[in-house]
Amino acid sequence: MRRLICFEPTTAIFRKEAGEIRGFWRAQECAPGRVVAFKLNEAHADHFVDDAGNFTTRYGTTDEFLALASEESGQDLTWFFRGYLYQAALPDLRQTREDGQLSLEWVTGDGGAFPMPVEVEINGRRQTVAMSGGRGRIAVPAGAHVLIDPDNKVLRRDAFIEEWRAAGGR
What we know:
Layout: E1 3-7, H1 18-30, H2 34-46, E2 56-60, H3 62-73, H4 78-85, E3 92-98, E4 101-107, E5 118-122, E6 125-129, E7 135-139, E8 146-148, H5 159-166
Parallel strand pairs: 1-2
Antiparallel strand pairs: 3-4, 4-7, 5-6, 5-8
Helix pairs in contact: 2-3
């Protein structure tokens, strides 16, 4: 009989607000890729039910979930989970633009590297900026129209949302 592994709501994964959890899963698809997210779900599904349709439950830990995610992705995702689950604040994407370069830098609560790639649109052309060590650079012509994360895929700190909440927003 295969086993269903449940992750208890008391683990770090479920301590965040509901909106952040949705964003977390969306961001998870950006980091290791949609195929890995599907494989991770498939790996869980493989443990749900036996051939007769019966299942048993075993409560797993956050560490087991992290190990499964890393195994399925073929990558060490410690940075990803450390950045989203073990910090009170969301990762902050800082930007500076000078001398024809756009510099991006992830800042996390523990100061650790957060190499989440970032999509950037420059004058309507989209490119992905690799963020080795949590930093990346891309050439930007003077006067160019730049959108960082144009589809808002990456869960990150947003000063506008913080101001809206401080003013009484939900």
